[in-house]
């Protein structure tokens, strides 16, 4: 395409906002210009505070890639969506399964559902998830809850070498991963580098990866990628996701399940 400079920049801003993050090489191919031209455009847009320029590309303006809201703050966001996602995700678990749950408010809601399923072995690095399983009566139904050790983060996760060592010794049938953000360029990401390594160990321990993420996570980019989009076997999200964004995900993830809050 042949566009004037300002038209090019409008296209760049739109792609950054819709994808969360873009690479210089991708923009150059899409616009039919040199990478140097794209870099100059990104310099202009960054000065205008329309994008954040990062190494090799740009990310959307918003939360910094290292900002991590606390568990309490996140637990009151998109409550209906998270409950609907949790209800759908729980249908993937059968009695007697070995399950992994990452930290996060959506996995926390899922834990309340899993507490009602008998004879599970649930491994988690989340204090809140473990407590939800305990108070929900998981042990009374013959389930075993294993909480890794580690260093506590703002999202109530236990991370670091102790948690990673524990997870690397396990073989789980299904892992449910909550994420800070998801985008075409950055995949499933987190703002906490140490949490990334722990979550990666959890992902590697599972035979099947199910990502649970509401629509607001699309376009958000954390500093570190946990997994690429195509590593997820299933993504459970909600109907607030735009059709174009859903199409991107369906092109990468084996199965995308979209739930409608209030119908569970």
UniProtKB/TrEMBL annotation:
HTH deoR-type domain location is: 5-60
Is Transcription regulation a UniProt keyword of this protein? yes
Q: Does the keyword Transcription regulation apply?
A: yes
Domain of life, per the record? Bacteria
Q: What Pfam families does the record tag this protein with?
A: DeoRC, HTH_DeoR
Query: Which controlled-vocabulary keywords does the entry list?
Result: DNA-binding, Transcription, Transcription regulation
Protein name as catalogued: DeoR/GlpR family transcriptional regulator of sugar metabolism
Organism equals: Pseudonocardia parietis
């Amino acid at each position: 395409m042949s566009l004037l400079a300002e038209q090019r920049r409008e296209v760049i801003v739109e792609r950054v906002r819709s994808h969360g993050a873009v690479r210089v090489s991708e923009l150059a191919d899409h616009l039919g210009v040199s990478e140097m031209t794209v870099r100059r455009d990104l310099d202009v847009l960054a000065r205008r505070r329309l994008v954040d320029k990062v190494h090799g590309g740009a990310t959307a303006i918003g939360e910094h890639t290292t900002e991590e809201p606390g568990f309490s703050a996140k637990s009151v966001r998109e409550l209906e969506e998270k409950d609907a996602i949790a209800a759908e995700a729980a249908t993937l678990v059968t009695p007697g399964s070995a399950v992994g749950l990452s930290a996060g408010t959506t996995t926390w809601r899922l834990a309340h559902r899993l507490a009602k399923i008998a004879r599970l072995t649930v491994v988690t690095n989340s204090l809140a998830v473990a407590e939800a399983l305990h108070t929900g009566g998981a042990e009374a139904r013959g389930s075993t809850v294993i909480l890794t050790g580690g260093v506590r983060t703002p999202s109530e996760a236990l991370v670091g070498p102790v948690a990673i060592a524990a997870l690397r010794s396990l073989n789980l049938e299904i892992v449910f991963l909550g994420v800070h953000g998801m985008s075409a360029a950055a995949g499933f990401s987190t703002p906490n580098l140490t949490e990334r390594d722990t979550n990666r160990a959890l992902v590697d321990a599972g035979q099947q990866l199910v990502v649970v993420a509401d629509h607001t996570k699309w376009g958000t980019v954390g500093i570190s990628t946990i997994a690429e989009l195509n590593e997820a076997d299933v993504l459970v999200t909600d109907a607030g996701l735009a059709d174009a964004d859903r199409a991107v995900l369906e092109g990468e993830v084996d199965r995308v399940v979209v739930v409608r809050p209030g119908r569970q």
